[in-house]
Specification:
alpha+beta; Arc Repressor Mutant, subunit A; two-stranded antiparallel sheet; two-stranded antiparallel ribbon; 4 strands; disordered N terminus
């Protein structure tokens, strides 16, 4: 499928079609795809384990600092993770509820393997 667009050139207050260019509507799929919110949350909780800093979480989950803050606030507010301060340094760990979430999420992925193929999930 292709999409046609044209460059407009303005001459004396009126527009005319100067040229037409054909551009593919969709880029070919790369081997990388966007992860869904549940997949990201599961990854954070899996890596969280016992104690990890926010920076290590950010690098290991391949998230921006802003996005990591959003997911951490969500996980903390629902009791999936806890925050511990040691010597003015914050560490994050996965709670029992968070571990249960990861187990249920992985069970669903085993039951329905096609969910791994959907970009929006």
């Amino acid at each position: 499928m292709q999409f046609r667009f044209s460059d407009n050139s303005v001459s004396q207050g009126s527009s005319s079609l100067a040229s037409s260019t054909v551009v593919p509507l969709r880029q070919p799929r790369s081997r990388f795809r966007n992860r869904g919110s549940l997949a990201i949350l599961s990854k954070i909780l899996t890596i969280g384990g016992e104690r990890i800093t926010r920076t290590h979480l950010m690098y290991q989950t391949n998230l921006s600092f802003t996005m990591l803050k959003v997911y951490l606030e969500f996980a903390l507010s629902y009791g999936l993770m806890n925050e511990v301060s040691v010597n003015n340094k914050k560490f994050y760990g996965t709670t029992e509820s968070g571990a249960r979430f990861v187990n249920i999420y992985n069970s669903i992925l085993e039951l329905i393997p096609a969910l791994n193929e959907i970009d929006d999930f």
